[in-house]
UniProtKB/TrEMBL annotation:
Protein name as it appears in the record: GNAT family N-acetyltransferase
Keywords: Acyltransferase, Transferase
This protein's record includes keyword Nucleotide-binding: no
Record Pfam families: Acetyltransf_CG
Entry EC number(s): 2.3.1.-
Gene3D superfamilies for the chain: 3.40.630.30
Highest taxon listed in the record's lineage: Bacteria
SUPFAM superfamilies linked: Acyl-CoA N-acyltransferases (Nat) (SSF55729)
GO molecular function: acyltransferase activity
Domain N-acetyltransferase: 4-90
Amino acid sequence: MSVEITSGTDRYDIAVDGKPAGFLETRTRPDAILFLHTEISDDFAGQGLAGKLVSAALDDVRSQGRSVLPYCPYVRSYIAKHREYEDLVPEDKRAEFEL
C-alpha cells in the first residue's frame, strides 16, 4: 500500500495507491492555521489513515513555525493522545480545546 499526503490551499489530501482516500480541511489566519474537519472515505476506514494525515499536517505546520487551532474533534483528540504536538496549540488557547 502506497500512501501519499499532499497539501494545497486550505486542505491536506491523502491518497492510497493513487486513489483519493480523505482530506483535512484547514483555514489559514495570520496567527494560526485552523484545523476544521478530517474525513476519510468509507472505503479506507479503519486503516489508520486519519492519524497519518493529521500527523503529517501537524508536522508541516511545525516546519512552518506556525500554530494550530484544532476545531476538528478528531485533531483535538489526536493532539490529546500525542502530547508532542500540544505545543503547536497556543498556551492561552489550550483550555478552550480541553488540552
